[in-house]
Amino acid sequence: xxxxxLTMDDSYIREFDxxxxxxxxxxxxxxxxxxxPESGGxxxxxxxLNGIKVLQVTKKDEIKHILExxxxxxxxxxxxxxxxxxxxxxxxxxxxxxxLSAIVFDKYNAVxxxxxLGYDKSRIDxxxxxxxxxxxxxxxxxxxxLIDKALEVTIRNVKRxxxxxxISERNSMIFNKLPKSIEEVRVIEIKDFDKIxxxxxxVKNTREIGYINILSTxxxxxxxxxxxxxxx
Length: 232
Ligand SMILES: [Zn+2]
Fold this sequence. Notes:
Layout: E1 4-5, E2 15-24, E3 27-30, E4 32-33, E5 47-49, E6 52-59, E7 63-67, E8 77-82, H1 84-108, E9 111-116, E10 122-127, H2 133-148, E11 153-159, H3 163-166, H4 174-177, E12 184-190, E13 194-197, E14 212-219, E15 225-231
Parallel strand pairs: 1-4
Antiparallel strand pairs: 2-3, 2-8, 3-7, 5-6, 5-8, 6-7, 9-10, 10-15, 11-12, 12-13, 14-15
The structure holds zinc ion (ZN).
């Protein structure tokens, strides 16, 4: 991967300058980017490169900025601006998802088996989980308490070997899923509450997330329940 991801160090980055390494069809590859590429259930950022609309940013073998029209050539210097409203909502949603997963695991022993974050609402699939109204009210209360506590959220990079000592016990199974090629792990810490490896963008304090409203639950079969939520 030729592109340095600036969001790994700064979830609040809104602008950056970069050099075009490759320009082809409808996309460019840059030496670095402040755009978050679609991954891990978090949608891509959108925004502009020198006034040209960035429709989507994808991450497969390379990080590609998909453009409305591509007028760039190799070695051009570009200025990127991120749609901050959308990014910040995704930061809030992603931190919310970490809180929710941890609460449900601790209290109801259900594991998060999938999630899709969005702008208006997000969803999380939990297994095994069959909540009634009382349980949903209880989760909402616990979640909102963590918002009121205004816990600091920090990011740090640790060596693969150190990760097990650093992360919360509830997240230890993640280590087995970590590809062997990854030598350094980025850990998101919600102070005195949760530590988990994650490459997404996050708020700096839980008070920024806002209160949760669980909109619906859906039985997905095989003891999986999908919770859909919004933030107020
Ligand atoms: Zn995450």
